[in-house]
Design brief:
alpha/beta, TIM Barrel, Sulfite Reductase Hemoprotein, domain 1, 2 domains, five-stranded mixed β-sheet, about 40% helix, elongated
Length: about 375
């Protein structure tokens, strides 16, 4: 039942701490997202954080544009079940306040924080409050001198900006940080990450920034992030969509599951359906995807509408169904024929046996996420 014929060799990076999580080294690749509420609205922000955590988010970033937001972090960080990253631009005081109020990580560009003294103050706060830093280089907000040098964003410009900011932190004896070199252009981002990964061993946070809406953004992110992951590059990821944060998390995990890098939750293998289907495959899959979102136990399910590919797929999954004639369908468990069913509500029937299988796995202590 094992589908992974080639294991991806991940690039060896330093290990840093983001709250209670390890990032880099031998740690799993983590999925993060970002809230789109006003951070100063504590209730709305916590509600959104709880929703994304429910679908699997490991880390959540919140924007901190003003003092009300940085002080709201005190309650948000205390009540959130995952590490919170404070997203800071330009205002060094907001970074200091965020560290004091419980942020696990600061997303900044040290080069646009201000004077050397201001940078030292931010680094001191990060050290004093066990707060990591993410150097967030972006093709849309490069330093003025670098943009003038290269005329436009390109891989060399992004890497030069990253190295400039890395040196600032290293000169302040600070090493608990990760780096990103994001761009909305897939090829630009991929080349920048490849170049940076060849010359530094800090953990890298991957993303194709401003990727677009649900469909276009998911495709762009899958291509860009997926290519880098296939090359062993990347320690955390964020899929940036003009959509709800929950969708970013779902797509992020689908990318990792497709590459065999994380096995959290239900992985459904299903056919696109055709005239041979013996039950409504598309409708069944849609219902199961929604009803099984809360399960984090790794479990692979095949839902195939006919006997052409169904038996072969079912032998490689833990739960499978293959459509048969006269409304009778074969259920497989652990790759073997188990029993036939007829005249059942398939989405409800399958949900029940999938949940039972997940519970059995949990009892055996085989919950590898």
């Amino acid at each position: 039942m094992h589908r992974l014929y080639q294991k991806i060799d991940r690039r060896k990076t330093r290990s840093i701490k983001v709250g209670n999580l390890e990032v880099g080294g031998d740690s799993p690749i983590l999925v993060q997202t970002m809230t789109n509420t006003l951070t100063s609205d504590v209730k709305a922000t916590l509600n959104q954080i709880n929703r994304v955590v429910k679908v699997g988010a490991d880390i959540v970033r919140v924007s901190v544009p003003d003092k009300d937001s940085s002080f709201a972090l005190k309650e948000i960080c205390k009540k959130a079940d995952v590490p919170i990253i404070a997203d800071i631009h330009f205002h060094y005081q907001r970074a200091i306040e965020s560290a004091i109020n419980g942020a696990s990580c600061l997303r900044i560009n040290p080069g646009n924080i201000g004077s050397k003294e201001k940078i030292k103050d931010v680094v001191k706060a990060a050290k004093d409050y066990n707060c990591s830093i993410r150097i967030g280089v972006n093709g849309g907000s490069l330093e003025k001198n670098i943009l003038e040098k290269y005329a436009e964003p390109n891989p060399d410009a992004l890497v030069e900006s990253a190295l400039y900011n890395i040196k600032i932190l290293e000169d302040n004896d600070f090493f608990n940080f990760k780096v990103s070199v994001k761009a909305s252009d897939i090829f630009l981002a991929i080349k920048a990450y490849e170049n940076l990964s060849s010359i530094c061993d800090y953990p890298l946070h991957l993303g194709i920034t401003e990727a677009g809406g649900r469909r276009a953004g998911s495709i762009k992110s899958s291509i860009g992030i997926g290519q880098l992951l296939l090359k062993g590059i990347g320690d955390t990821i964020r899929v940036s969509l003009s959509d709800e944060p929950e969708e970013e998390v779902r797509v992020g995990f689908e990318i990792l599951k497709s590459l065999g890098l994380r096995n959290k939750g239900i992985k459904i293998i299903s056919c696109p359906s055709c005239a041979r289907q013996q039950f409504p495959v598309i409708e069944t899959v849609k219902k199961l995807e929604k009803s099984l979102e809360d399960i984090i136990t790794p479990l692979t399910v095949s839902i195939i509408g006919c006997v052409v590919n169904g038996p072969g797929e079912a032998t490689m999954t833990q739960i499978g169904i293959t459509g048969g004639g006269n409304g009778t369908h074969m259920i497989y468990v652990d790759g073997k024929k188990d029993h036939r069913i007829k005249n059942e509500d398939l989405s409800i029937y399958l949900e029940n046996i999938i949940r039972k299988k997940a519970a059995d796995i949990d009892k055996l202590g085989d919950k590898l996420v």
